[in-house]
Amino acid sequence: MKLVLASTSAYRKSLLERLQIPFETARPDTDESPLPGEHPAATAERLAAEKARAVAHAWPDALIIGSDQVAYLGDEVFGKPGTEARAIAQLQRMRGQTVVFHTALALLNTRSGHLQVEGVPTQVRFRDLSDAEIRRYVAKERPLDCAGSAKSEGLGIALLEAMPGEDPTALIGLPLIALSRMLRAEGLELP
């Protein structure tokens, strides 16, 4: 069976390459809006499954990986900022706080229809950052395409006090420990 990553994210692609399994990528066409009253963790898990299903028609004999991440603090959700001003505002709001980055993973077997979905939360504790630190960070790393405006795999690690979690790759966007477990459940041998 083919392995397909339903994502065009360079971060997810790079992570999946670590498993040394050949795979293809496909762009899922999904509306990423949360449903009314939907908890952020539930949004991430629903979207991961929808992304996998969105490309299933093109891959009738494949294992399709979908993933989504939502960063939140209480009821406040931090999406991809898109602009420097929004990235700065997000980091100002998160400074001194513990933010949950909930990374959801789905694996769809298009041959059997079997769908596995799992959420992997990471508690990220931000330092009490000054405005100058935030502006310097955003200018240097330009984290405009990642939820929560901080890249722990890069300079963003300097913004943090701690990030306890089950899987360090979850925070980057694709929880490889959970994915390896799911792939083994589908009969793939790893390593």
Overview of the molecule:
By secondary structure, the protein is an alpha/beta fold. It has a single domain, classed as Maf protein, CATH 3.90.950.10. Helices cover 29% and strands 25% of the residues. The chain has helices spanning 10-17, 40-54, 84-94, 131-141, 176-185; strands spanning 2-5, 24-25, 62-73, 76-78, 98-109, 115-126, 160-162. Strands 1, 2, 3, 4, 5, 6 and 7 form a 7-stranded mixed β-sheet that branches. α1 (10-17) links the parallel β1 (2-5) and β2. α3 (84-94) crosses α4 (131-141). It starts with a strand and ends in a 6-residue tail after the last helix.
Strand content: 25-35%
Coarse shape? elongated
The total count of helices amounts to 5
| CATH class call | Alpha Beta
Helix content bin: 25-40%
Average pLDDT, all residues: 96
**What class do helices, strands and sheet pairing give?**
alpha/beta
Topology:
Elements: E1 2-5, H1 10-17, E2 24-25, H2 40-54, E3 62-73, E4 76-78, H3 84-94, E5 98-109, E6 115-126, H4 131-141, E7 160-162, H5 176-185
Parallel strand pairs: 1-2, 1-3
Antiparallel strand pairs: 3-4, 3-5, 5-6, 6-7
